[in-house]
Amino acid sequence: MAKNDWYKKMTVYQIWTRSFCDSNGDGIGDLPGVLSKLDYIKSLGVDAIWFSPIYPTPNADYGYDISDYKNINSEYGTLDDFKKILDGAHERGMKVIMDLVVNHTSDEHEWFKQSAQSKDNPYHDYYFWRKGKDKKPPNNWLSMFEGNAWEYNEKLDEYYLHIFAKKQPDLNMDNPKVREEVKDIMRFWLDMGVDGFREDVITFISKDEGLPNGIPLPVGTGIEHYKHGPHLDEYLSEFRHDVLDNYDCFTVGEAPMMTPETALPFIGEGENQKLDMMFHFQHMEADNMINDWIKMPFSLVKLKHAFSNWQNKLYGKAWNALYIENHDHARIINRYGNVNYRTESGKMLAAMYMLQCGTPFIYQGQEIGMTNMNLKSVTECKDVSTFNNERVFKKLGMSDKAFMKLVNSVSRENSRTPVQWNSENNAGFTSGTPWFKINDNYKEVNVENEENDPNSLLNFYRKLIKFRKENDVVLYGKYKEFYPMSNSLYVYERKYRDSKLLVICSFKEKSVRFKAPEGYDLSKGELVLNNYSDNKIVNNGFMTKPYEVRVYLF
Ligand code: NOJ
């Protein structure tokens, strides 16, 4: 089948179902809840929904630990509920993509249970079972979540590999039977009518032969042996040729540690393309080192460098996946914006990333400017990665108070709180007791308030999505950055045929002088998007207001 490229025109909305909308009062978001909000989602102007995993799971990592790939988590509903959403979305002209988590399963998946039965069980080789060395694990790899990457099984006197939590054993993709299982899962959902996959840490699925020791790191030791391993290309090609090419679908692969150079062999357009897009992490590292928990002061120069590098190196060769939030990061307004200018900085950040070349993804709550939490104690926390970091930071002598400050600033808890629909009880998320604390600011920050205000962030997102769709310069224009060393302003141009777009973003509260780049006469441009009503131009420039954004079309 000829390769489609409809995904290039799309904007995608990500749903983390547990916290989206609860229909039955059990305090947990569910699929009928999503169904009831399809019109809202459509009203944003988005073209697709990506569901974070909604399969049966023991919830060690809220669905990223799957115990049955071909069913729906009963907390969320049934396959029939899912089919209703699929139909409802399709009727409204929206696509639906599923999260494909095949680097690992849950330890409660039948394959793993079988594999742990005996060494000659046919499923034993579905996972990485290895003998220890001198009563120690087979190598020095550390997990991303829970200390050592190996868990000992006394009965077998063997260890199994888990790059994430110990309840997430890694699948052995070198086993052709495992790859057949993956293809079977893909076909199951594609045959049902889903339109593609977001593929969880898909670049980790091939491990170096012999699983050699890694260079010691505080977390994730060994990563150089699987970050894009020896058979990744081969396995992704196999999935593409045997399955994906037979459907009109698209894929976006999660790809930690990728650079444009390492990504291009996988997403470069043409015969050998394996994935349509990748979620890289480089622009999410402008306020940290190694991972979100190792905080650094925000650097706009670093942020711009990451974005520009991907924009420039992929242009005409591959397609970017654009995002600034998802279920794995704290809320962006707290990170790169300013909560005291929630709406203004929220708009600026939205325009900053969505007007670049690529397919934008929006995470639930991002469109109404939801912000970080104020959790008081670890007992209120829910995430395995918080619990692991608690052990790490307490060992280093961090106090409870300092740790909670860190949690409320960097943890994944922040993005997983229930969506705030209105100012009623429990923010309209549930009529019961919510499974997780609702942000104290829900009376002010909620969908209803945003709907009622024509100048809200929500309505700005709508404008932005519409503008992108209607203007080829946003879809296809070439990107060029100005003033790359400025620590206050992010200014870039998009150019397509005879039209040009100039995007001017201030990352500062204080006023900064913006002067139009050479060749631009601002008075000749049409101001198409902005976040303040006063838009005077003085000497072909202006003094910025806090977190101001202006977008001129020429
Ligand atoms: C990436 C997912 O986005 C994250 O939520 C999860 O914990 C890990 N992969 C492991 O599946």
Structure commentary:
The protein is of the alpha/beta class and 554 residues long. The chain is built from 15 helices and 20 strands. The protein has helices at 31-36, 38-43, 79-91, 110-115, 176-192, 232-242, 260-267, 300-314, 332-336, 342-354, 384-395, 400-410, 447-452, 457-470, 472-476, and strands spanning 12-15, 48-51, 95-100, 129-130, 150-153, 158-161, 196-199, 250-254, 277-279, 288-289, 291-295, 321-322, 359-363, 478-482, 489-496, 499-506, 513-515, 526-530, 541-543, 549-553. The strands form five sheets. The protein has an eight-stranded parallel β-sheet with strand order 9-8-7-3-2-1-13-12. The chain starts with 11 loop residues before the first strand and ends with a strand. The model has no long low-confidence stretch (mean pLDDT 97). The chain binds 1-deoxynojirimycin. 1-deoxynojirimycin binds next to loops. 1-deoxynojirimycin binds at residues 61, 64, 101, 164, 200-201, 254, 327-328.
Q: What's the helix and strand layout?
A:
Layout: E1 12-15, H1 31-36, H2 38-43, E2 48-51, H3 79-91, E3 95-100, H4 110-115, E4 129-130, E5 150-153, E6 158-161, H5 176-192, E7 196-199, H6 232-242, E8 250-254, H7 260-267, E9 277-279, E10 288-289, E11 291-295, H8 300-314, E12 321-322, H9 332-336, H10 342-354, E13 359-363, H11 384-395, H12 400-410, H13 447-452, H14 457-470, H15 472-476, E14 478-482, E15 489-496, E16 499-506, E17 513-515, E18 526-530, E19 541-543, E20 549-553
Parallel strand pairs: 1-2, 1-13, 2-3, 3-7, 7-8, 8-9, 12-13
Antiparallel strand pairs: 4-6, 5-6, 10-11, 14-15, 15-16, 16-20, 17-19, 18-20
